[in-house]
Amino acid sequence: MSPWLCSEALRRRSPGPVLYCHIGVGSGDVPTGRALDRRDRVIDLDRRRVGEAEVAPEAEAGAERPRVGTVVLVAATPTDLRRAVPAVAGLPEAARFVVVLVAAAAHLGPPVPVVPGSGGWEGLLDLRVRRLPDTGWETEFFFADPLPPLALLQTLARGVTGGRPGPAVTPVGGVRGGATGLWRPGDPRASGSDRVDVLLDTEEPPPDARVHEDEPDLVRERRWTPAQTSWSALERPVAPGEPPRRFAVDDVPPVDEQTVNPIGFARRPTTETGRLFARDGRWVLRAAGRDRWEVPEDGAVTDTVVESLRDLRGVRLTWDRHTGPLAAARAVVGLAAAGVPLFGAEPPDWAGCLGPELRTLLTSVTAPDLRDSLRREEHSVRLRRCALRVHGTRARWRALGTALGAPRSPEPKVSVLLCTRRPEMVGFALRQAARQRDVDLEVVLGLHGFGMDLAVVREGVAAFRATGRHLEVVEAAADLPLGTVLNTAAARASGDVLTKMDDDDWYAPHHVSDLLLARMYAGADIVGNAVEYVYLEALDLTLRRDVSGECLARRTAGGSLTFDRRTWEEVGGFRPTPRAVDTHLLTAVRLLGGRIYRTHGLNYMMRRKAGGHTWTVGAGYFLRLDAERQAPGWRPSALMEADPRDRPSRDGRAPTDVAEVGW
Amino acid sequence: MVSVPVEALVPVEGAESGPVEVTVRSLLAGRGHEVRVGLVGAAPGTDAAGPRAGDGADEHPLLAWSERYRDEPRVRWLSEGERTRAEPRYVLWVRPGTELADDAVYTMVRVAERYKVALVRSVLPGEDPDGPRLERCVEGASGVHWVDGALLLAASDRPEEAAGESAVPDTGGEGRLERWERESAAHRARAMRLERRYRWLTRTRPGRLLVGLLG
Q1: Are B125 and A619 within 8 A, CB to CB?
Q2: Domains located in chain A, CATH noted
Q3: Predicted ipTM?
Q4: Is A539 in Cβ contact with B123 (below 8 Å)?
């Protein structure tokens, strides 16, 4: 943080003292000299403990609220800004706020606040957002009446990540001690401003704790911060109240998936493999002859760190000792959640808190394997999937809720909209839906121009129902347009999330669950796959197109569109047209200001048959679009986990045998 | 690219003269490589071609047309397995009636050499691939590369959406996306250099001194 930036932030002082807060690595260069006077206060939010009174603020109701003239918050990155949200609870109100983001990943939006729906901003006099030199931002607010910092920061944190807020983190939890933002980033309730179901203590509760004494049933759980679990602390004999010597998965502070996620994954690395090793007791990531990242003591991974490492082919873990096991594990899971291709030797015992699946994945590839771009991306997808599902904030709190018996919201139910004009494809299409893993799913099958009286349809439906999942059948006349049939199917669906599947395309077993993950971290209104793999049946040829994934986009595969039921309602459903329904839906969402996110393309393979498509383009269209990488036969990615029954056959002849192919 | 010998084979068995002429004319008008055309099938006037002209039966449909190419050394009648030249570098099989663009042969040779494949196959708009399915033989050996046949057709036959497209990316080894990414990274790096320079010149004592001296 440049002192100049701080001085700029403080130059236009309002009457009254300044409360100068900072959080994150690189934000701590507090201005000196005349910038701050003796009345001003400096608070390091990384060290601030959200006190007892702040956990139960209702105890102070009626008291005169303290005020300051200006609150300045300097956050190193958007990840730190989100951590700051619960950490500022209880700070005095102010009429002027200056929020400085020292740096931000390019894919994150400017810190433009999302005005709260409940009002409270009628007194806004001035709002200014400006870009700072390099990649930082400054947002300045003037209000006629003072506001608490918590209310303001919450709106800014939402503005930076943008899009939909995503599913709530449940159970509702509070965190006591100095790690509030670590465990519930971006959550204004984490400081205890409202009633909570679970309370995490990250420090020993004082003997006279009065916290929630009116809630005898409140579940309390002890956790340790990375600072409390340094190697030196752990090497002492265990004393009462001290952390254990081995940690479980649930002990690791979770990854904030809103900012540390696969967005921006680079498929073409420009730098060779880096190495994460210890120097003077701290991990350092070194690549191409220079230090790229000095891992902070607490192992925090931020959006800017991830962005700066996107050019690496992979990162080798040496498993030297970092400051402590929790800090080291936090760094590893953060990088894994972002899809940085990590690998290394067998993890030591202290890394058991990574979880068995992640430990196995880390040893599943070697540096030569990552030279193959496809293998590298497959490894990255497996890592991020595992890390987000096990170590993401929502996953961590869900697991805590399960373990502690606390109430939590159910997993979203997904309804697959599957409409077909081809009875012979019903069995195949339902098998694609049936093989989906880790998701609560039902299928609404739209029979377009035929009915259940056909034996081949009955067989397919019976086989799907035998899996135990629900299937709803919608029969529609042949002369109805596709959009109308899809709307009928959507109206019959009972899921919170709707996903569209085509009757002839191939879907990997984690297709839907990966889309749900993307929906969560991208805050998008519609998520879908990149159309990377296209199988041209007439030519028995697989094209691997050069389509960027893990990014916001204007288009995504029509056979993978996934959206909330609410989005479908907001755009008025599918257009009642016989074709191009996907394009109409995407356009409608875009025109409403919605966000479309395209994930990777390894879970999906489009099939172009000789006939029977509503989209009547020939094989030549795809060859013209992108014919750079093509291989004979049917060659999906390894993530497809191809089922032999679903392999294509042409003229009764099996396609060219699947073999290793150098794309 | 150096001119290479190419043999174009046009199966004319049962074909009308019009389509054959269209194809042969477009092949001979092509540029870039030395193309010879072999009309595969029994030549008019031979026993194998059926009843001779003037003996009361219908004339061979290509008889009149073939007279026009009597003195064209680049066009020959061939029987199955025969070749127009000893060792053509490439053999092009093309169906009668296909009017190729003048750079079609050049493009296909470029595709073959760029992707280092033994066979370049094209698929014409709205049709299944026809002709001998050679790709089933060469796949395991030295590879096949498919191109959109629309991009090889003369402008008049080319579908509207394929106008202006090329079967070979114009970047000589890398995709357009990669080129743009490289260019944007270079621009970004330059912008950052300029920003650093600006900051040094405006916010440091030596920088301001230098600006003052230079005016």
Answers
A1: no
A2: 3-161 (3.40.50), 255-391 (no CATH), 413-656 (3.90.550.10)
A3: 0.71
A4: yes
Query: Residue A232 contacts by C-beta under 8 Å, 6 or more apart in sequence?
Result: none
Answer yes or no: are the C-beta atoms of A518 and A607 closer than 8 Å: no
- Over residues B123-154, the pLDDT tens digits come to 877 666 666 666 666 655 568 888 888 888 88
Q: What angle do CA B56, B62, B67 make, to 5 degrees?
A: 100
CB contact under 8 A, A546 and B177: yes
Report domain extents, chain B.
5-167, 172-215
B55 contacts: CB under 8 Å, gap ≥ 6: none
What residue of B is the nearest CA neighbor of A616? B126
Does any CB of chain A come closer than 8 Å to the CB of residue B145?
Answer: yes
Chain A touched by B110 (CB under 8 Å): no
A502-535 residue pLDDT tens: 999 999 999 999 999 999 999 999 999 999 999 9
Q: Please confirm whether the linkage preceding A171 is cis (ω < 30° from 0).
A: yes
Residue of chain B whose alpha carbon sits nearest to that of A620: B148
Per the CB < 8 Å rule, is B145 touching A656?
Answer: no
Question: What HEC string does A459-506 produce?
Answer: HHHHHHHCCCCCEEEEEECCCCCHHHHHHHHHHHCCCCEEEEECCCCE
Task: Give residue-wise pLDDT tens across range A153-169.
Answer: 999 999 999 998 888 89
Count residue pairs from A and B with Cβ separation < 8 A: 62
Residue B75 CB neighbour total at 10 angstroms: 20
Test A538 with B150 for CB contact under 8 angstroms: no
Mean pLDDT of A464-492: 96
Closest CB to A538: pick one of B128, B151, B175: B128
Give how far Cα A430 sits from Cα of A35, A463, A467, A505, Å. 67, 8, 11, 11
CA–CA gap between residue B121 and residue B93 (Å, rounded)? 10
Determine whether the interchain pair A632/B148 forms a contact, defined as Cβ–Cβ distance below 8 Å.
no
Contact between A633 and B139 using a beta-carbon 8 Å cutoff: yes
Q: Which CATH architecture best describes the domain B5-167?
A: Alpha-Beta Complex (3.90)
Residues of A in contact with B121 (CB under 8 A): 539
In this complex, which of A538, A621, A624 lies closest to B129 when CB atoms are compared? A538
Inter-chain contact A618–B126, Cβ cutoff 8 Å?
Answer: yes
pTM, two decimal places: 0.86
Kindly state whether B128 is in contact with chain A, defined as any CB-CB distance less than 8 angstroms.
yes
Backbone CA torsion sign across A455, A456, A460, A461: negative
pLDDT exceeds cutoff 90 at A306: yes
